[in-house]
Specification:
406 residues; alpha/beta; Rossmann fold; 2 domains; 5-stranded parallel β-sheet; 16 helices; elongated
C-alpha cells in the first residue's frame, strides 16, 4: 500500500513512555513524515495551527473521559478541510469504538499500537481524505450486507444466490464479489463448491501487502462470474478480524467490484458494526417462526439504535409457504405487527431445489429454469440495485448542493 506515503502523521502521546513506544512503531512507514508530540488534547488544540488537510492525527485518549471527549469533538468539528483522526486507547471496549466512530474518527486502535494496525489505519485515513476533498462523489462499488435473523434462516443461501443473480443478470461489465465473514461457520464456499484455501484471515496476517492484486488472488472464482472470499476451514476466534483491516478491505473491494455482498455472522462485533456503517443496503433475513421473528426484532432494534448505520434496510422472509390458509396468513400478520413493518421480499420454500443447487455448487437457475424462487431472487436483487442507485443519487444531490451553496 502506498496511499499514505505523502502524508504527515502527527501523533499525540499522553506520556514519554507512550511516545517512545510509538517512535519504534513509526519506523519505516514508506516515507510517511512523523511528528511525535507529548501532551493532552487541550494543549494540543492551542498549538494545532500548523495542521493541514494532508495530515493524519493519531491521538491517545481516555475513551471514558468527558473532558477528552469534548476536546476530541472540537477537533472533529473544525472547519474543513481538516486532518483525518485516528485514536488509540489502552483499554478500549466495543462500546467505546462505536461511540468514537459515531463522533467521526476514521479508526480506533487498541494500545499499545501495532505497526500493522497503524499502516492499515493510515491507508484508510488517506482514502477517506481523498474522498472528502474531491469535487465529486467518486464512482465506487456498492456494499450490500446480509444479516441473520437467527441461525439457520437461510441468509447465506440468499446472499450466495443473490450474488449469482447480480453476476448473470446485471449489466455485462458488472463485477461481483461475495465476502463470507461468518469466520467460524461460513458455508459460501461449500454452497458453490469452491476449494480455495486462502481467506480473509490469511490477509489479516499480511496487512502491509494488501493491494488489488493480493485481494484478487485471495478470491475464489465461480463460473457464474462471482468472486468469493471463503471462510476459514479451521475454527478461528472472531477477534482474528480487526475493524481497521476490514474497513480497508471493504474500501479496496469497492474499487475493484461493482457490487460487494457481505454475509455477516449472527454475532455483533466491532468489525461487523464497522461493515454495517459502510453498507449501501442491509438485508435482514428471517423465517416465520417465533424464535426467528424475536431475533429479527432485536436485529432491527440494534440497527435503529445506531445513527451512523445509515443504509436503508430490507426485510426478507425466507422459506415462505404462500397460500396455506388462514393460519399461515394470520402468522404473517402477527409477525409483521411484532416487527413494526412489513416484509419487503418473500422467498418461496423450494428446499429441494436449494439443496440440489448447493450439492452441485451451482446457481438455482442451472438446476431449474424460471422457478418461483429464481423469480423472487431476481425481484429482490433488482430492487436492491435500484435502492443503492437511489442512495447514490441522493448523495450526489447533497454534494452538488454543498458546492453550489444552495
Amino acid at each position: 500500500m502506498n496511499h499514505h506515503s505523502a502524508v504527515r502523521l502527527v501523533a499525540l502521546a499522553r506520556s514519554e513512555e507512550t511516545r517512545s513506544s510509538l517512535a519504534k512503531v513509526c519506523t519505516d512507514l514508506n516515507g510517511t513524515k512523523i511528528d511525535l508530540r507529548v501532551g493532552d488534547l487541550e494543549g494540543f488544540l492551542k498549538r494545532s495551527g500548523d495542521l493541514t488537510a494532508n495530515d493524519v492525527l493519531l491521538l491517545e485518549i481516555d475513551p471514558r473521559s468527558a473532558r477528552d471527549a469534548s476536546h476530541l469533538q472540537t477537533i472533529l468539528q473544525s472547519a474543513a478541510p481538516r486532518p483525518q483522526v485516528v485514536v488509540t486507547a489502552a483499554d478500549v471496549e466495543p462500546d467505546d469504538v462505536r461511540r468514537l466512530m459515531r463522533m467521526g474518527v476514521v479508526d480506533v486502535l487498541p494500545g499499545p499500537v501495532r505497526q500493522a494496525d497503524l499502516v492499515i489505519a493510515l491507508d484508510h485515513a488517506a482514502r477517506v481524505s481523498a474522498s472528502v476533498t474531491s469535487n465529486h462523489v467518486t464512482e465506487q462499488g456498492k456494499i450490500i450486507c446480509f444479516l441473520k435473523g437467527g441461525g439457520g434462516v437461510g441468509a447465506t443461501t440468499i446472499a450466495t444466490q443473490g450474488a449469482c443473480v447480480l453476476a448473470t443478470r446485471g449489466q455485462p461489465s458488472a463485477k461481483v464479489c461475495l465476502l463470507d465473514l461468518d469466520l467460524q461457520f461460513g458455508t459460501v464456499g461449500l454452497k458453490l463448491d469452491l476449494s480455495k484455501t486462502s481467506n480473509l484471515v490469511d490477509l489479516v496476517e499480511s496487512p502491509t501487502r494488501l493491494d488489488h492484486a493480493l485481494l484478487r488472488s485471495a478470491m475464489a472464482h465461480h463460473e457464474c462470474g462471482v468472486d468469493v472470499m471463503v471462510a476459514p476451514t479451521e475454527m478461528v476466534p472472531l477477534e482474528a478480524m480487526t475493524p481497521a483491516f476490514l474497513l480497508a478491505c471493504l474500501a479496496m473491494c469497492r474499487e475493484v467490484y461493482d457490487y460487494v455482498l457481505v454475509d455477516l455472522p449472527p454475532a455483533w462485533t466491532s468489525w461487523t458494526y464497522g461493515a454495517l456503517t459502510k453498507a449501501d443496503a442491509i438485508v435482514v433475513v428471517s423465517q416465520l417462526t417465533v424464535a426467528s421473528i424475536r431475533r429479527t426484532v432485536r436485529q432491527l432494534e440494534t440497527l435503529r439504535a445506531h445513527d451512523d448505520i445509515r443504509a436503508p434496510f430490507r426485510l426478507a422472509l425466507n422459506r415462505h409457504d404462500k397460500g396455506w390458509g388462514i393460519r399461515k396468513s394470520g402468522s404473517l400478520k402477527t409477525a409483521e405487527k411484532a416487527l413494526g413493518r412489513k416484509f419487503d421480499y418473500f422467498l418461496p420454500n423450494q428446499y429441494r431445489l436449494v439443496t440440489e443447487a448447493a450439492d452441485r455448487g451451482q446457481p438455482i437457475s442451472k438446476i431449474q429454469r424460471r422457478s418461483k424462487l429464481e423469480k423472487a431472487l431476481n425481484h429482490m436483487m433488482a430492487d436492491l440495485k435500484e435502492s443503492v442507485t437511489a442512495t447514490e443519487e441522493r448523495v450526489d444531490a447533497k454534494s452538488s448542493a454543498r458546492h453550489t451553496g444552495t
